[in-house]
Amino acid sequence: MARKTKEQALVTRARILDAAETLFQAQGVAGTSLQDIAAAAGVTRGAIYWHFADKGALFNAMMDRAFLPLEERATALAAGDDGRAALVRLAEHLSGVFERFAVDAQMRRVFEIATQKVEYVDELLALRERHRGACLQHVLKLEALVRAARAEGSLPAAPDRSARAMALGLHALVDGLLQAWMLDPGCFDLADVGDQVLHAYLAGLAAPTAPPLPLAPAPARQSRQNPPRGARRGAAKKTR
Fold first, then answer.
1. Which of 36, 53, 56, 174 measures 20 to 30 Å from 99, CA to CA?
2. Three-state secondary-structure class, residue 210
3. Are 117 and 82 in the same domain?
């Protein structure tokens, strides 16, 4: 009897999460109440509170269900206990993100909710910290792989290329491609283009250090406390 009750609880929890995903995608997180979710799931609000403390906890559980397998895989690859080169593990992880995203409808749905359907205000303000923390953890795992690749010699230890900057670039590359593809999935093949762009980026990181590009210097910034002389004269005329 106890086992059946536990199984029923898991089924109910999954039904609540399914309903939340559908409604969050259709009408936004802020525009969806727990009562809406309860009605769609065929449960009471009390059943929702039995599983989740509030809407924020429900949102976090939805995110974990969709992305925890990827996060755990990234952690295992960053740990580097499978004997393969770090650069190989890094490329495999990020290529796997593109491949999984292209075929996993639930992951795409939750990504859309997290990036387009949530406002970080009021009771949902804490979700911003969750999002920030998840991004930071991913960057740290990428940085660990970059450092390992440098230690192995597959990436050059260039003083002007910090491991954190490389990791941030990789994170931005993946996030940007996912968001661009979500806007128009027919525009390009995510797995194919993602793999090409990723390997071009990694090839650039692996290239010997070259002199900086001859870019024009950035214009000097004017201090608000010390505006240009002409601006001060203009302001003085207006006050006369």
1. 56
2. coil
3. yes
pTM, rounded to two decimals: 0.76
Whether residue 41 contacts residue 19, with contact meaning beta carbons closer than 8 Å, is answered with yes
Domain membership of residue 193 as a residue range: 64-209
pLDDT in tens, the chain (240 residues): 455 588 889 999 999 999 999 999 999 999 999 999 999 999 999 999 999 999 999 999 999 999 888 888 888 877 776 667 888 888 988 999 999 999 999 999 999 999 899 888 777 778 888 888 889 999 999 999 999 899 988 888 877 789 999 999 999 999 999 999 999 999 999 999 999 999 999 998 888 765 555 666 656 655 555 555 554 455 444 445
How would you label 16-48 residue by residue, b for 16+ Cβ within 10 Å and e otherwise? bbbbbbebbbeeebbebebebbbebbebeeebb
- The answer to whether residues 34 and 105 belong to one domain is no
Q: In this structure, what CATH number is given to the domain that contains residue 39?
A: 1.10.10.60
| Total domains present in the chain | 2
Does some domain include residue 116?
Answer: yes
Domain annotation covers residue 180: yes
Tokens, residue 149:
């690749």
Q: Are residues 135 and 191 in the same domain?
A: yes
